Amino acid sequence: MTENIIDNKPNAVIYLRVSSKKQFDEGYSIASQKSSCDNYARLKKFNVSKIFTDEGVSATIFLWNRPKGRAMKEYIEKNNIKHIIVVKMDRLFRNVRDLLETVDELTSKDIGLPWHWQVQQSILLIFLRRVNQDLQKAVRSEIFGGNPNLIKI
Questions:
Q1: Which of 83, 107, 119, 135 could form a cystine bridge with 12, CB 3.0-4.6 A?
Q2: 86 and 122 together in one domain
Q3: Is residue 21 part of a domain?
Q4: CATH of the domain at 15
């Protein structure tokens, strides 16, 4: 894609990701993500200067460690990028530490993400998944003797 930087609009990049064919089949295709992100950029009057797409890459890999995530980081550091547009926060993060560290880093550079309910929802969902995993491990552990009745929520 050609880079498209216009001085009178805030510059943004779009990040797209699918990790499996199942996601594609469920409507998270690259094309549907791009369409939603393009609509958001038009609504907010952002200039989309570049699109980064990770296909077949799990969000369990920290954002800056993914091939296009690393390229996006380098690009936003070298250009006047003020926003990263993504259709859902789970396209970026599945790990609380990655989310918090990346958001801190972006905030310190005055780079925004679509800040609305998605960030809070993502943090809550990641936390609840982790609690669920920890509870499942505890139920299977010797500490509880494998008895699920010892844990009440």
A1: 83
A2: no
A3: yes
A4: 3.40.50.1390
Contacts of 44 (CB under 8 A, 6+ apart): 10, 83
The verdict on 82 and 120 lying in the same domain is: no
**Rounded CA Rg of the chain:** 18
Residue 131 covered by a domain: yes
Q: What is the amino acid identity at position 62? A: F
pLDDT of amino acid 116: 47
Element (H, E) at 85: strand 81-85
The yes-or-no verdict on residue 79 having pLDDT over 50 is yes
Q: What is the pTM of this model?
A: 0.70
Judge whether 11 and 81 are in contact, CB under 8 Å.
yes
Domain limits at 53? Answer: 11-114
State the pLDDT at residue 111: 87
Residue 2, in any domain of the structure:
no
Rounded to an integer, what distance in angstroms lies between the CA atom of residue 78 and that of residue 72? 10
CA dist 25 and 144 (Å) reads 40
Residue 85: φ, ψ to 5°? -105, 130
